[in-house]
Amino acid sequence: MQSAALLKRVDELPRLPKAISELLEAVNNENSSVKSISSKVAQDTLISARVLRLANSAHFGRSREVGSIDEAVIRLGMQTLRTLVIASAVVGAIPKVEGVDLADFWGTTFEISLYAQELAKRCNVPADEAFTCGILHNIGDLLIATVEPSLAAQIRAAAEQGGDTQDLEMKLLGFDSPSVGALLAKNWKFTPTLVAGIEYQRNPKTAEPQSKLAILMYLSHHIYTHWDDERGEEPFTAWLAGLINNAGIIKMDMSGLTDKLVELRGKGIEIGKQLA
Asked: 20 to 30 Å CA-CA from 159: which of 51, 67, 132, 255?
């Protein structure tokens, strides 16, 4: 549940330009045609540029670069186009934030999104929905830095010294990053399932009903944050299996997962550098 402190500041959340709002509505509508979405994307120069950069990135690209939205649609398909449009719109919604390196922020965000996308494929969760949730999962950090830059700086500094981010946010702000991120996603008319994935990402076991997206966000963030931890003689694969089991996830196909994550590692960081 949103705190009173957060609800009082709803008006400070960024609003999407009407054209972008209509575009997101279109890509989230299963009945929208490829032609209509391509036309809407092409009308916005910045969104078009970001979509094409993503389409040609290491993760989504192929041997030959695409030079138009129509080509991107043909190459990538409708689901991937939806994902890229949403990612591009979110990246552009908050163009500058005091004290935040956006290339680093979006690099981390896309890295976690790619991990979530891969995990989703292995437990029957829509991969594009998991990727989109990943793109939005930590946008609350940007919003806090926008509305409370000095407090956001205090929280970052204390967290770097080992402080608990959740406790710091609640003590200094009266709300936490996932709550404000979830409220923004709700205001932007994303699905309740996706909103829950953002809101309960830090403690998915508290979600009622169960939020598979929250579990995937928790796992993906944990994998990214603790990838290089010292584990003694425990293999990475064993650590990963234990992490997934402890999260209470639905059944997941573990075959080749470590190799796939190793293959993905760094691709999100590169995408973030291209877009920021």
From this structure: 132
